[in-house]
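Problem statement: downstream parser choked on a complex file, so we are re-checking the raw output for the 2-acetamido-2-deoxy-beta-D-glucopyranose run. The parser issue turned out to be on our end (a line-ending mismatch), but while we're here, posting the original submission so the record is complete.
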Amino acid sequence: MGRYLTKTVFLVHTPILLLHLFISFSSGASFNSNEKKGVCISKGGRFPPYESQGKPPKFAYLELKNLNMCKLFSGKTCCSASQMKSASLAVKNLATYGEATKHCLALFELLECSICNSKVGIRSGHPRICASFCDQVFEACSDAYFSSSNASKQVIVPCGASEDTICRKASKWVTNGTAFCNATGFTVQIAEEPCFGSSAMKESLRESFFEMISMELSALAGFFLFNRLEKWLEKRRARIQREARERLEQEE
Ligand SMILES: *[C@@H]1O[C@H](CO)[C@@H](O)[C@H](O)[C@H]1NC(C)=O
Ligand SMILES: *[C@@H]1O[C@H](CO)[C@@H](O)[C@H](O)[C@H]1NC(C)=O
Ligand SMILES: *[C@@H]1O[C@H](CO)[C@@H](O)[C@H](O)[C@H]1NC(C)=O
């Protein structure tokens, strides 16, 4: 049983693991005093404020579990349900109305989930995305459909159910990855600053992955042991009852 479930966990997350291979770039670091504290700083703009604003990123597996998005970052994150809802709506629209390829959906999901990465969470301002990662997302999503948005600082969103909006391919709205990230509400980082999609970030994604897997496995082990314990207690209870019954029968 243990082996079967482990396999399932890996199957579910394999696409995200593969994504790591597409991510490359490098980074240096300079933090302001607020950022040095390592606490969650809400991103503003279209991004819902963090409930854990001012507190350090924490384990949020249970909260993210049922939303099935951004789970990769659940080991250590500033996110809670409100960020998940906004990210999953965007990805759901892209899947339903955007005619996006699987590769586009996977990369766009990772982009939307960037706010749940703990390193993005503790930096101020809009999520900083590496230009190279923006290029990859744009390349994969240039034929997917987006519409204009009047939300603050965001120009385009994946097309939704509403027929009032004009849907056009991403490549008709913008012509490169930098402009794509900017139009979807992210700040593009070109050099020398930590950003989402960098090689340092790749390392932290790998860490996130193993953190999440180990949390999942320990939850599983706990469940397994609890079951064993229950069965053992059940057997013990039955034996005590049997012994008591036998003693009574002997006494009669
Ligand atoms: C966009 O504008 C319409 C009216 O023009 C308004 O009803 C809607 O709430 C706005 N949406 C956002 C996200 O600001
Ligand atoms: C990307 O496109 C924008 C506007 O479409 C343009 O201003 C900018 O120079 C382009 N950037 C690159 C790196 O080509
Ligand atoms: C997008 O680019 C414009 C012009 O360079 C800039 O003013 C704006 O702040 C950028 N948006 C984001 C979310 O970084």
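For whoever reads this later: The longest helix spans residues 199-251.
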